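Entry for the shared binder. Reason: the reviewer on the internal report wants the predicted structure included alongside the sequence.
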Amino acid sequence: MKVTLMVWRQESPEATGRLQRIEATDITPDMSFLEMLDVVNERLMLAGDRPIAFDHDCREGICGSCGVVINGVP
């Protein structure tokens, strides 16, 4: 499965931010969103790009601290 991510990128609080389109490939339907981000980040780092930064705690998507918005919903 291929998933298109629109990721907000901003180098610092003072820098102008931008949306970056990232194509996530070979994603399986049984992956959680956080598992998919792990796969995407591994590929970004292997390509020499910065990983997607996000806050997380339980990594189960139930505690509410993940700090991600999916289709406009936290």
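Summary line for the report: The chain is about 20% helix and 20% strand.
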